[in-house]
Design brief:
With 495 residues, this protein is an alpha/beta fold. 38% of the residues lie in helices and 22% in strands. The chain has 15 helices and 22 strands. Bound molecules: 2-aminohexanedioic acid (UN1).
């Protein structure tokens, strides 16, 4: 099959990068397959895209929000129709199994239907004035041009978390997809085009962080940068945005934990740990990478877990029989291998996994065995640092208070979970776990789009995506005072 070359999307046209350079998108399950060629763009392409977004700003913010939303509803409808091919392209470019890529597309569909509803809400407040014959209200205004920098682990869902609320609230946007998953964003952009989004409202520039992402951060006409990715890149972006005094929202790492108490339904807990630790090959910001288990049930739980982890079918995500796909690329594999060595050196006990997965059909991909470490102490690096691979560390605890302290002893605060039958303990944990998301008797993953998504501490900068919380990122409040008294009235001073 001929390898396709994809272009950038600027001002409603598909255009080649000014650099004249391309990069290849490789299937991580079969590295001899090139999924497509994409523009390796540079700062001049970013300039063109931002200029188009800037030019479209006035027209788009003056388009009534319900009309903007109508286009987005069409986007959702097209995604419903194309769900299967979107999922297949996604599995080819990033490896997660089809069940999960279908879920990723579904998350984008749900988010789009839900958030497009804001077109007829976008509620502000009306409040009384302290003065006679004066009317007060607040309304939401767009921020301007939004620069979106998106990751490869949720190639469609996360771009939708940014683009849909940005566009329904009247912003225009430039998106830079992760180098590992540009095809899913190209597919998304084609859907916006088909749905009738006017030129310039959404622009896409593919390429690397330093060559495309950074020029977006530095560009004076980008008013807001919305980023999901690593803590290290996030702090660079924060510093860049601070220097240029622009707004930013960051969604970064996690070191998410599942607590299993001695009264827990262990079968259910094991299901949750498997889904959390090995779903998406552990490459989610919400992945379960620590299990904090009550010492009374530690042996039983780890035995059950290891048995199931060993039995997981690793392989190409396009084959529906497989339960876990490959890692994203060779750097990811090297990083996971490094943490396996670190865990061993630190004295943790590896119960299964720890190496590349071998076997029929696995030689050409970045497949890795599901790995379980036990006898992990909370301060070990494997219990503190984000690994982003199929590795879970089991730490024992003597009671819930200690478990909560261990969970909270982390620079991140994205997601946490507790398995218990005791409603009192559950509520205590909900109060005390310092994370943006807490699950009771469910895994650390499985966020729904109508609720805020994000975390505390090093996971973000205080913002939340999805739900109605996303509006706080993508709009500016404007307070409006209408004085119909016919005279000069002074607040406070007239008191
Ligand atoms: C992420 O981990 O990067 O709850 C996003 C979940 C998904 C979203 C995760 N719905 O795991």
């Amino acid at each position: 099959m001929a390898i396709k070359t994809w272009k950038n999307y600027i001002d409603g046209k598909w255009v080649a990068a000014q650099t004249g350079e391309l990069f290849e998108n490789i299937n991580p399950a079969n590295t001899s397959e090139v999924v497509g060629r994409f523009q390796r763009s540079g700062p001049r392409d970013v300039q063109k895209a931002v200029a188009a977004a800037h030019k479209a700003k006035k027209m788009w913010r003056e388009t009534p929000a319900p009309k903007r939303a109508e286009i987005l509803y069409r986007v959702a409808e097209i995604m419903v129709r194309e769900k299967e091919s979107l999922a297949r392209d996604m599995t080819r470019e990033m490896g997660k199994i089809l069940a999960e890529t279908r879920g990723d597309v579904q998350e984008a569909i749900d988010l789009t239907y839900f958030t497009a509803g804001e077109g007829r809400r976008l509620a502000g407040e009306t409040v009384p004035s302290e003065l006679k014959n004066k009317f007060c209200m607040s309304v939401r205004m767009p921020v301007g041009v939004v620069g979106c920098i998106t990751p490869w682990n949720f190639p469609l869902a996360i771009p939708s978390w940014k683009l849909i609320p940005a566009l329904v609230t009247g912003n225009t946007a430039v998106i830079k997809p992760a180098e590992d998953t540009p095809l899913s964003v190209v597919n998304f952009v084609k859907i916006f085009e088909q749905a009738g989004l006017p030129p310039g409202v959404l622009n896409m520039v593919t390429g690397t962080g330093p060559e495309v992402g950074w020029p977006m951060v530095e560009h004076p006409q980008v008013d807001l940068v919305s980023f999901t990715g690593s803590y290290e890149t996030g702090s660079l972006i924060a510093a860049g945005c601070a220097t240029h005094m622009k707004q930013y929202s960051l969604e970064m790492g996690g070191k998410n934990a599942i607590i299993v108490m001695d009264d827990a339904n262990l079968d259910l807990a094991v299901e949750g740990i498997l889904f959390g630790a090995f779903g998406t090959t552990g490459q989610r910001c919400t992945a379960c990478s620590r299990v904090i288990v009550h010492r009374k049930v530690q042996k039983k739980l780890t035995d059950m877990l290891v048995k199931r982890a060993r039995a997981l079918k690793v392989g190409d995500g396009l084959n529906e029989k497989n339960e876990m796909g490959p890692l994203i690329n060779s750097e990811a594999q090297a990083k996971v291998e490094l943490y396996i060595r670190i865990g061993k050196t630190e004295g943790a006990k590896m119960l299964c996994g720890g190496a590349a997965a071998k076997g029929r059909g696995l030689s050409k991909g970045y497949f890795f065995q599901p790995t379980v470490f036990t006898d992990v102490s909370p301060k070990m690096r494997i219990a503190q640092e984000e690994i982003f691979g199929p590795v879970v560390s089991v730490v024992s605890c003597k009671n819930l208070e200690e478990a909560v302290d261990i969970v909270n002893d982390s620079k991140y605060g994205l997601s946490s979970a507790l398995y218990t039958q005791d409603v009192n303990r559950a509520f205590q944990a909900i109060r005390d776990l310092d994370t943006g998301i807490t699950y009771i008797n469910a895994s650390t993953i499985g966020a729904e789009i109508q609720l805020p998504f994000g975390g505390t501490k090093g996971t973000g900068n205080g913002h939340r995506e999805a739900g109605t919380a996303a509006l706080e990122i993508f709009t500016e409040w404007k307070s409006v005072y209408i004085d119909y008294s016919g005279k000069l009235q002074k607040a406070q001073i007239d008191h």
